[in-house]
Amino acid sequence: MESLDEHFNLEDESESSDDSSRNRHKSKLPLASPLCAETKFESGFQKTGRICLEHIREAMLHHKWQEAAEYMASYTQMLEDRKRRSTSKELVWRLSIEILHHLSNSTVKDYNIIYERMKHSGVKDYLTICLEHSFHLMLHGQIEEAKQQLSVAESWRYGKESISQHQRVKLIQAYRSLLDYMIWCDKKYTLTKNNSIESDNQGMQTLFRQASVNFKELLRNPGVWDPFVLSYVEMLEFYEDYEEALNVLNDYAYDNSFPPNPNAHVYIYQFLKRHNASEKKLVKVLKNLHLLVPSHELMLEYSFLLLQSERTSDFRKAFAVLLDMLDFACWRSNLDVWKSLQDAIHQLLSQNEGQMIIQDYMALRKDWWPKLHFTRSHAKKDSEENAKLLEVKASLAEILCPGRALRYTAEPLPT
Amino acid sequence: MDHQFPPRLFPSFYNRGPPEQLPRGRSGGWGAYGGVSAQGGSGPLSSWTFTSRRRVDGEVWRQTEPLPVPLLSPRKAFQEYLTPPDPMDFLSHLQNFFIDDGLDAFRCTSEVLGENFYFKKAKKKEKYRQGSVNMWRTKSYIDLLKYKPCPVSNPSRSLERFSSHMSDVVHDVPLELLGSLLYEELTEQRERMQFSERSTGGALAYVPFSQSEGCLLYPGGLGMDRLHFHKVALQNSCMDASSSEPVSFQLKAPIRQISCGSVLGDCCVAVRSDYHCGVWRFGERKQPCLLQVVDAEAAATCVSVSPHVLGEVLVVSESGAANLWTVGRGLQKVRTEESNLYFNAKSPWRWCEFSAHPRVMVYADRTGAELTDFRAKASGAHHTLFRISSTSDCRSGERLLLCRYLGDVNAFHHLVATQHSAYVMDERFPCVPMLKCDHMMQAPPLFCHVASASDRGMGETTKVLLGSHSSQEITLLQYSGGRLEACSSRGAPQALLRPSDSLTHLPVQIPHRQQAAAQRLASPAAGLTCFQKKGGAEDFSLCVLQLTEVGDIFYQILERRPPAEDKSGAPEAQTSEQLQVSNPARHGDIITAAPETPDRIVCLDSSTEGAEDERGTRKQLPVAFNDEPGLDAEVCGGEEVDRSSCWEAPLTISSSTAETWKLWLQKLRLTGQNQNPEAVRPQNFVVQTAGLLQAADRDAGGELDEPLRREMKGCMRRRSLLLNDSASIKVPLTVPALVNAEAWTDALSDRLTAAWRGEEEWQAWWRDQLGTNRKMKADALRRKRRMQKEARRAEGRRFQLSGSFTSSVSYQTDLDDPFESTGWSSAVSQGTLSDEEGGAVLESEEDRTLPVTATPDPIRTTTPQKYTPSRPRPLPPTQPNTPQTPRANQRSWRPQDDFLSSVWGTQDAPPQSEEPPQSEEPPQSEEPPPLPSSWFPSSQSGSLRPSLGSLPSSQASQSQRGPSQASQPKRKKSRMGF
């Protein structure tokens, strides 16, 4: 692509002129390149533009939007500089939109003018600008217009597809499908309200088909697709395609090329829960989640499920899960967790090897748990905030950390 | 609740691989929404609401003052140069070393060679040493080096030969080694100034005790090697550090980082210097006490106090080893990493932070950060939290600079800063940044502070402050979410005030003080901290403190605009108003500020005498403004001083701030004076001005005029006129003694004396001076001459001869009138010159050489005396400028020329031929005096002219030529005087 090549050259130029006097020692320091670097051979026009840009930057960083807008009005002339058109175009687009965000008297028309003009003044940023424009419309409640924008962008083709362009096309399709889903939801709502109109059902089907194609396509790409997955699954569930829904969720959660998203496991758990799956399946999902996020709030349910199963190994797991939870700062003064731990310990102690198991698990923690949970300050704080917690914790202190002279007691402290 | 994880995150692609080659989007996150997520959906289409990843609305924070305020008075400090050195300058550094410290550079070899070298002129050599080499030519060349001659134009053959023979042995330190070491050192210095990674983290910390009180921890002392614990309080709009004295500890090395962690009211402070780390413990009522100090073999790069367990500290050094330091028990190695984590970034810098789990730490280097569980000894217990890759949409060349555990904000969040962006990472969902904001800073951020939302339910934002080292930048970023909803950044990054910019808001000082202050204020930042104060329901303020490398602490207080106004877009409207209002004022100030400067300085000077008496200085401030006619309408006081100059900030400098700054600058000056003893600096010529403007008899009027002075001062403050009735002269002011007009013989005094005598006298003086009455006078002269000639003819030749050789005194009295006539012409010819060249100097010189003449009328006699002698001096400059001599002047001489030609007859030509450029001057003016040099100025032309006039032509030409040749050098000498 021509514009891309131009960009390449530009970068080379700016890099070489960066420190031309010291080519021998190229600085490896992590310094940021300025917004618009001074180049070796710049015309007066470019210099003016650079200084203007510097002023805009300064004004924007100090939130002097009016001043920035005044400078911006002049900076648009930089679009006539052929050499740096691609960079200055992106700058003009982004900076003007940002300034418009913060000006009190900016109108929808202003936004549209900038988006449309910048969109059509080149090919490089067309898709990005389209996407941003549709976001803007969505945020301002103009869902129909946003969908129209996205449809236009979807059918836009130019040259070879680069990776970033490919991803942008996918995102555009996904967002359009999200809007389809929302219209679908709207129709579903009217359907449930009126319960009679047949033609709407047809429309819903079309929307579902359109959206599902795109969603399916998108979900093959690794990424974080929480809103899309949820929408897709909801539509699939509506049409009672549970198998496909579960497939989608499983793929999302267990595909190794995907990032380890805790939400993916949570969605499966919620889906299984909705469809009254067996405890075993639930435990399996939660076990995976436990490996990923031992501090997740579902771990409380996990330990509860384990404790219900009457098996020593499960008691042990529950005990471990709860100890893991209590390692984390956010659960340390949570009464429910301590109570569950109390239950687990009671269950374990009723078994033969209970004491041993507890000691095994506590061996790793013996040098820091007392300081983490059972100091006098903790006792004081707990007695002030939650007397019940103090009671539970005090009863467990001796079991968990035997042989340590803990100052954590349920008795009122001598002050 | 911290344990909640956002149920739906913003959609994004998960790319794995190295960062993209192209630095895309250099405009950062400006203007982009970055993705949206929808909520709602149970109702109709309109019930859906969207939130974007970059939300436009943020809290609006405004500084209460347009400039940061110094918290402590300035102390002595060593200041490094502000401009980084250029490694390619090593040649000039070497040159300086060789020239200035030749003994150190060449001692050994020179001692060996010294016996065989002889540096004196060659002729005498044989007498002393037979076998020595003659070096005087080389020496004379080397002596020339002081003047930096062009080495190409002045080559020294012998020196070249010597250098080619001995360049490898003559240096004590081999030149190549020294050069490369110096280059390396300069490179390192340069890099350290551009990016000082050892000060990462910052050496400033604040531990809050209550809502407005807390303890500030900062380094002090000359070497920044004294740790101070200082209780401070935030009052209405300023910080108060004077309530208590700091507790301080002397350390062995400069403090690089201070890390604080408090567990249930107990606070643990870890301090890192280059090779030592120490831990102190203190509380609100507990005095700080040192617990333990450890030494590190390699330079420590990070120290981090555990937020979970009191007394646990992580220490990492450049060797790559991370140690868990349980205070009292010693170090325990928890991880070692010889190379960088993800790719070779060639950096030994390492960083460690605790995480939500007390036994999991974040181990970071320039390439990324890993979560390390150090319970398990196996090395497999690491997983990536963050890495420089396309996953986080990094750019190529981006490096991790800072990592911070945000335990106060969200138990699972970490802040990762690079030179382009700040990332918020959630350790439950590693690798993928929850949030990425571009901070738009020019210098890499090395310090950060995060202020959590005090009330999470109110939709308040979390404030992230990033601070850079060299450029002192502070950027405020805001984000929200992380629990029930996904993280989204709020508003645009905001640059806060920098101390180096503050001088523009303050009254201008005289240049060298301004420069000294600017240099001090521009020293790089060394730390950053901040705390929040919540006064009422809608009264939030944020106090940002910044430490500089010379130990100054500046603070700025930000106030939050109530949220209701945020949404209405009012701030922008106000900004524009302010801009409109302030712009004209700005121009006004620029114009008026300049003239008032010296006055201001005078005030400051006088105030320091009174031992920094605040009230005194304040009283004197307005004095400066009384001179300004246009400023009468303004109210006096500190506020208006800088109202117009603080054009960019929303508010004016309050009087207390102005006062603080004034005191600070004064004290800075005092410390600067102590630092550079007077002996070192070249002394300036000082005019004694004490008592210059005081009444002659001070003892008598001392008490009496006190009320008068007070009244005058009051008037000056009010900018009103000092009226007679208000300040009726009750005091008998002493009148200075009568001036003896005769004692002053220069032109100005003459003119003044004439002016005192009345207008006619004065006008007559000017007429005389300008020569408008020359014709009249010439006529009178002619008449007189004629009469004299007749008289002489009658008397015979005897008198003439004697007249030409007697002393000038008699001549002057005799030849009063002729003198005057020449006086006119000279005055005219000189008029332009004396103006240009400062006639006063001439006059004073001449006054000294003037003989005391006992003439009846001092005015009439001094006039010619003054101008005639000075005539030859201005001549030399006129020589080259002859064509430029005004025509009017030339014409004005004509009458006299006519007259003179009549007198001189044929003698016009000789002087002209001798000195052609002076041809336009009347020939007499070149007449050199055949007199002793002390008399030369006063009588040179006058003494001869009359005699010449009366001499026969042959005699006259003789007497004129002879002395003219003789006096040639003399005139040149006088030219030197110019």
UniProtKB/TrEMBL annotation, chain A:
One GO term of the biological process aspect: transcription by RNA polymerase I
Membrane spanning stretches: none
Sequence segments annotated as region (Disordered): 1-27
InterPro entries: SL1/TIF-IB_Component, TAF1A
Alphabetical list of Pfam families matching this protein: TAF1_subA
GO cellular component terms given for this protein: RNA polymerase I transcription regulator complex
Compositionally biased region (Basic and acidic residues): 1-10
Identification of the protein by name: TATA box binding protein (TBP)-associated factor, RNA polymerase I, A
Organism of this sequence: Cyprinodon variegatus (Sheepshead minnow)
Lineage summary: Eukaryota, Metazoa, Chordata, Craniata, Vertebrata
UniProtKB/TrEMBL annotation, chain B:
Organism domain of life: Eukaryota
Ranges annotated as biased composition (Pro residues): 871-880
Regions of compositional bias (Low complexity) in chain numbering: 933-955
GO molecular function: RNA polymerase I core promoter sequence-specific DNA binding
InterPro entries: TAF1C, TAF1C_beta-prop, TAF1C_HB
Domain TAF1C beta-propeller: 269-407
Protein name per the record: TATA-box binding protein associated factor, RNA polymerase I subunit C
Upper lineage: Eukaryota, Metazoa, Chordata, Craniata, Vertebrata
